[in-house]
Structures are given as structure tokens and as C-alpha cells.
Amino acid sequence: MGTRERLVQTMSDLLWERGYADTSPREVRERSGVGQGSQYHHFASKRDLALAALRHNVDDVLPAADSLSGPGSPLARIEAYLLRPRDALRGCKVGRMTQDPQVREDPELLAVVSSAFTAMHTQWAHALTEAVTAGELRSDIDPEQVAHTLMAVLQGGYVLAMAQGDPAPFEQARQGALSLLRAAAPQTPESLTK
């Protein structure tokens, strides 16, 4: 890994652990083993390094959403994505940035976060639309609204887990989301007689 990549990876990790406001360029240098001259050769400022690290975090998170599309049952893909292993106590690499006041106040930093959520929403809405089209979800559900709901459940689950220092609230939130999705399946004559 080259010097630039080490700096970006280190800043990426520190953003996830501490946030932008609580990370200093000195901490990045110390953890990465890169000197000050090299750091400023690659990045003129902490903000420039943070932009590269945020983009790196988005590039880490978004490929997982690709599992929402592809062959097979759309609902099975949605369920698999909801249940994929996550470190609930660390939270979302991208979502945690919304809690950082300096990120929220910087339009360019916030735009990276916002665009990631927009891309994620698009993936969710597409998968949910496919599930409706395939008859796996009722036709009266709104995929756009449900996509926002599922994203909010995951992000809120992270917040609750971190607040309590326990992954259980995250697990319960995503199990609740699965229950709601299953309840949105079309009623069959067999299910009505049960």
C-alpha cells in the first residue's frame, strides 16, 4: 500500500471510530506512519484527506448493496441483505458522519454522504419494485416509502445499539423489518384460512 492509500485508509478508520471533528492530522500521521511532509504532499488539508476517506468509505459500503439486485427472488435478496453480518456497535461508516457537526456544516463533505444514501435508496427501491412485480409483496405498497423505512430501520438500529452498548436493539430492529416485509406479502387463500 502506497503512502496516499495508507493516509486514506487511516483517515477512513478514524472517521468511523471518532468522526471528522475529533480526528487530527497528527493522529492520522502517527497511526499511518506517514510524515507531515508526505501527508501535505498528497493532501493540502485535513478536509481534502477527509473527502478522499469519505469517498473510500462510500466505495466500501455501496458494493454490499449490489446484492439487492441480481437473479433469483427479490424478497430473498432483500432478506439476505438485511441479515448480512454487521458490526452494530461500530455503526455505518457513512451514516455515522451525519452525527458529526463539521460534516453537516460542510456542503462538500455532506454531499458525499448524501449521494451515498441516494444511491442506497435507489438500490432498495429497485429491489422492492421487483418484489412487487414478482408478486412477493402486495401491489399497494410504495417501494420508495418502504425503501426509506428500511434504511431508517438499519441506521436507527445502529444508533440504538451504540447508545446501549449492545447489538440486541439492532438485531431486533432488523428482525422487525423482516416481520413487516413478510406481513406485506400478498394474502393467499391458504393463508386466509389459517
TrEMBL record:
DNA-binding region (UniProt annotation): 24-43
Single GO term (MF): DNA binding
The protein, known as: TetR family transcriptional regulator
The HTH tetR-type domain, residue ranges: 1-61
Lineage: Bacteria, Bacillati, Actinomycetota, Actinomycetes, Propionibacteriales
InterPro entries, A to Z: Homeodomain-like_sf, HTH_TetR, Tet_transcr_reg_TetR-rel_C_sf, TetR_C
One Pfam family linked to the record: TetR_C_13
Keyword terms, alphabetized: DNA-binding, Transcription, Transcription regulation
Highest taxon of source: Bacteria
Signal sequence range: none
